[in-house]
Write a structure and sequence with these properties.
This protein has 688 residues and is mainly beta.
């Protein structure tokens, strides 16, 4: 660790301690009355603040969560595991400590351990997904986030989505709720360094927020170095009392080396080794991404509102894996959302209408992976994805505390590929595929008390395949869309001593998109992927999040996932459990809190083994990880933290790849992606 940074951090922290202590004892100090000439307003029409977001999301008859980033910033803030690890219903597991994450809600993208699918990922309510449904985790900067909305499953109808996983929306601050200056520095094990600077303000009818960040780490494993630079800007303008417009600019450059998965013996022997072979070659994922968007809000009287948004993004991907993939994509999208709140027959009623078209085009050059460099060309492809999403949702209050919610979502998606590199007509891999579905939803929401709700819903889900499923392997593989029916019941609420979020769901899926690793050239070859449609599968589970305020200044936070995913009378696999995901996962922390200081243990438990092949012959072992977190909000300007993880130096698989049968002769069993070993992180934040 950088010793100079460490000394500066300790010096800043201790320098402010006596100041804070002295301030606590100046009870007799008398101040003259000061008139405040100007102040920041608290609400933006295009970008709701945290309180407004909570009010909106709690009108949903299903599993939803708001993650306050002020709580997350009490420890390291690096990847989706850090930001969403304690969010109810979310499974987020970092690959080798990287920003690349295995992200799943209710088993969405079940075997996907790279890129993302099955969830609509957004920033500021505008999609980060490409038009084909895939997304890159590296597009998101958690330091530029004020709060996160998590809509699980069909509860994401508010954003027009129909997939099994729902939607996750990272909301940035604006000039109305950002600090004039925020500087945050983090450092720690494996040469981890992260620096973020941001500023925001309101100038008349204009406001702005600007955030820049850098991230570097060597990584726990060999060949796992990561480097990233990001810039996020939004600025808004109040045209008048009824119109506000806001522009967004985002840039991200992320360069990542990729260590290979390990066999189980290699994992137990030395999980930090990259174990790269000449056949695999150097593997990387380098991304350049730029994103431009606008959102404009029109208030149409006291009861109606129209919000329109449009975006453009460009991505360059250099990705040596089983081949060198050079992929340039351009994506465009538009959304119009109309809301009206009024009465029908003397009962409150709220109507939402939405329309989301999107279009994307990509150019894919594939070459031999010559140890991380381009060899001879193997293929040249052109992708096009088109989507039209339309949705309507109505909330009718049968009684003042009971709302009946009905919704309908329509999806029309096209996936077109043009092969531009073949010698004969038989080698032409071009295809056209169209996916169309209408998805209904019905639910009920009961406000038992002002801060206690019960809900139930029944919904349909639908997910057209991305090009990762259709053309991500050795040859195009045309699969059907995944669809299903989900029933959910649950409750959420808060009292003086406890906050809770509990959902139970049962989803019956048809044609689930299941992905496995394939090894085209023997035991030492780099794996590609192959996606197939299962016949029928079942995803059932419990999602539980809780914060308890206990005696003796203790606070207990936890997130518990229990998953039961299986085939349903499948011809080959019967009722076997689906491989590749923990059966249950508990994350918890118990903090002693007093006068801005906090300290306590953290724990992550995966108590059962789970299979990594469909034949259920090879398993990832259970594990328990312990840590300690401490820190202090010294005063309004300065805070610091220490975050120690995996103190027992446990060797474990954070996630795995999946294959059909690990016992087949010559099958490569390098499927395990190790989690980080013992690590120590520290950081400080200054703001005013």
């Amino acid at each position: 660790m950088n010793q100079t940074l460490f000394r500066c951090f300790i010096g800043l922290s201790t320098a402010y301690l006596p100041i804070s202590a002295a301030a606590d004892h100046q009870h007799d100090l008398t101040l003259q009355q000061v008139e405040v000439i100007g102040k920041k307003e608290s609400v933006s029409a295009t970008q709701p603040d945290l309180d407004a977001a909570r009010e909106i999301i709690n009108k949903t008859p299903g599993g939803v969560t708001i993650v306050d980033l002020h709580e997350i910033r009490e420890g390291r803030v690096s990847n989706f595991r850090d930001t969403l690890g304690l969010a109810a219903g979310v499974l987020a597991q970092s690959r080798f400590g990287a920003e690349e994450t295995r992200l799943s809600i209710r088993g969405s993208g079940l075997q996907r351990t790279f890129h993302g699918r099955g969830i609509k990922l957004m920033q500021d309510g505008i999609p980060v997904n490409q038009a084909d449904g895939s997304f890159d985790y590296q597009a998101i900067e958690p330091m530029a986030t004020r709060y996160i909305e998590v809509y699980r499953g069909a509860n994401a109808l508010r954003y027009g989505t129909s997939n099994l996983g729902g939607a996750i929306n990272f909301m940035s601050p604006t000039g109305y709720d950002a600090e004039h200056l925020n500087i945050r520095a983090e450092a720690g094990s494996f040469d981890y360094q992260r620096l973020g600077l941001s500023t925001g303000n309101v100038i008349g009818d204009f406001d702005y927020f600007i955030s820049g960040s850098s991230f570097n780490q060597e990584g726990f494993r060999e060949n796992a170095e990561q480097r990233a630079l990001r810039l996020n800007v939004n600025f808004g303008y109040h045209v008048n009392d009824d119109i506000e417009t806001r522009f967004y600019l985002g840039y991200a450059r992320s360069d990542s080396d990729l260590p290979a998965p390990l066999t189980k013996d290699q994992l137990k022997d030395d999980p930090s080794d990259a174990f790269l072979s000449p056949a695999i070659g150097q593997q990387k994922r380098d991304i350049d991404l730029i994103r431009i968007a606008n959102k404009t809000n029109f208030r149409l009287g006291e009861q109606s509102n129209l919000q329109v948004s449009a975006y453009y993004s460009h991505r360059d991907l250099f990705h040596p894996i089983f081949q060198v993939i050079d992929l340039d994509t351009n994506d465009y999208g538009f959304e119009a959302r109309y809301t009206h709140e009024g009465e029908i027959l003397g009962h409150k009623n709220a109507l939402t209408l939405g329309f989301n078209p999107s279009y994307g085009k990509g150019y894919d050059e594939r070459s031999i992976n010559n140890r991380g460099k381009r060899g001879a060309r193997q293929n040249r492809l052109e992708y096009q994805a088109r989507n039209i999403e339309a949705y309507v949702e109505n909330r009718f209050y049968l009684m003042p505390d009971v709302a009946l919610i009905a919704g309908l979502q329509y999806t029309h998606s096209e996936r077109n590929l043009r092969d531009q590199f073949f010698a004969s007509a038989g080698q032409n891999e071009s295809f056209d595929a169209t996916y169309v579905q209408t998805n209904p939803k019905i639910g009920v929401l009961y406000d038992y008390r002002p801060n206690v709700q019960f809900y139930a819903n029944l919904s349909r889900s639908y997910e057209p395949p991305s090009f990762g499923e259709l053309a991500g392997g050795l040859r195009p593989n045309i699969v059907d869309a995944q669809e299903g029916t989900t029933f959910e019941v649950g409750t959420r609420g808060n009292t003086e001593h406890i906050d809770w979020d509990f959902s139970a769901y049962y989803a019956k899926l048809d044609k689930e998109l299941l992905q496995t690793a394939v090894f085209p050239a023997g035991n030492n070859a780099a794996p590609a992927t192959q996606t197939t449609n299962a016949d029928q599968t079942v995803h059932a589970g419990l999602e539980f999040g809780m914060t308890a305020r206990l005696p003796w200044h203790l606070q207990w936070r936890q997130s518990l996932l229990i998953n039961h995913f299986r085939f349903n009378d499948d011809e080959q696999f019967g009722n076997r459990k689906l491989p590749g995901l923990q059966k249950s996962l508990l994350r918890s922390e118990l903090m002693y809190r007093r006068n801005g200081f906090y300290i306590g243990p953290t724990i992550e438990v995966s108590p059962q083994r789970y299979s990594v092949d469909f034949a259920q012959t090879l398993y990832a072992d259970p594990y328990t990880l312990w840590g300690i977190k401490a820190g202090q909000q010294v005063n309004k300007q300065l805070s610091w933290f220490i975050d120690m993880r995996n103190l027992s130096d446990k060797k474990y698989a954070a996630t795995t790849n999946v294959i059909l049968d690990a016992t087949r002769p010559g099958m490569n069993q390098a499927l395990f992606l190790p989690g980080d070993g013992r690590s120590f992180y520290m950081g400080a934040e200054f703001k005013y």
